[in-house]
Amino acid sequence: MAVVTGSEPLFIANHAALDFINTAFGMGPDAREVLPDDRGVVAWLHAAGLLEDPVPDPPAGLATLARELRDAAGRLVRMPASPVPADMALVNRIREQGRPLSVLEWNASERRPGLVERRRDDGIFSLLEPVATLVARLVSEGDLRRVRKCEAHDCTLLFEDATRSGRRRWCSMALCGNRMKVAAFRARRHDRDGGQ
After folding, report:
1. What per-residue string of b and e applies to 152-170 under the rule 16 or more CB within 10 Å gives b?
2. How far is CA 149 from each of CA 25, 69, 190, rounded to the nearest angstrom?
3. Phi then psi for 136, rounded to 5 degrees?
4. Superfamily name with CATH number, domain 4-97+124-192
5. 128 Cβ partners below 8 Å, 6+ apart?
6. Residue 56: other Cβ atoms inside 10 A
7. Range list of β-strands (E), 108-179
């Protein structure tokens, strides 16, 4: 199966951990990969607002670990009642090895020292730690009953339903909602007109 790489990221899930899981989406010939290489991961981290400082040379292996984390996160979110221990271990390892540093620095605006949290280094664990932490918080503290898969038959995207009614059905109206509503309208019209 061919996967189209270098696709634009979709930020439609209402939660960055779900947006990360959604970096692989689509089915069959429409399958898309947003994290094809190390630079693609850095680009996604920037676009998601999880990486402010530039990383001129992404570390080798970043994309491989990011895709492993994405797969583990997807399983943890989809099957929270029966997590795979290796998935939790991977999230914990990335969080532990990439834990940011808390550094005492001069704060000129307050005219006194202050604690600043910053990335430990430009290694793969430091770069992916914010994502692993978001995944850990989602599965441990989030309301996973609000996490849904798009109801479009050909869509694989997840989202957090933040509506008051809790009845959101589509990943987005622009991507699937309108398309599915038009298809349902045509089917009803076809049935009404006797299949003509």
Report:
1. beebbbbbbbeeeeeebeb
2. 12, 19, 28
3. -60, -45
4. Jann2411-like domain (1.10.3300.10)
5. 41, 62, 65, 66, 69, 94, 98
6. 6
7. 112-118, 147-149, 158-160
Distances (CA, A) of 151 to 65, 106, 146, 157: 29, 51, 14, 9
Largest separation between any pair of C-alpha atoms in the chain? 78
Residues 196, 192: Cα–Cα separation, whole Å: 9
**In 15-156, which ranges are continuous DSSP H helix?**
16-21, 38-47, 62-78, 85-97, 124-141
Rounded distance, CA 133 to CA 27, Å? 28
Q: What is the pLDDT of residues 127-158, one digit of tens each?
A: 999 999 999 999 999 999 999 999 888 889 99
The average pLDDT across 26-51 equals 93
**191, containing H or E segment:** helix 178-192
Place of tokens 């503290």: 141
Q: pTM (2 decimals)?
A: 0.85
Domain boundaries, the chain: 4-97+124-192
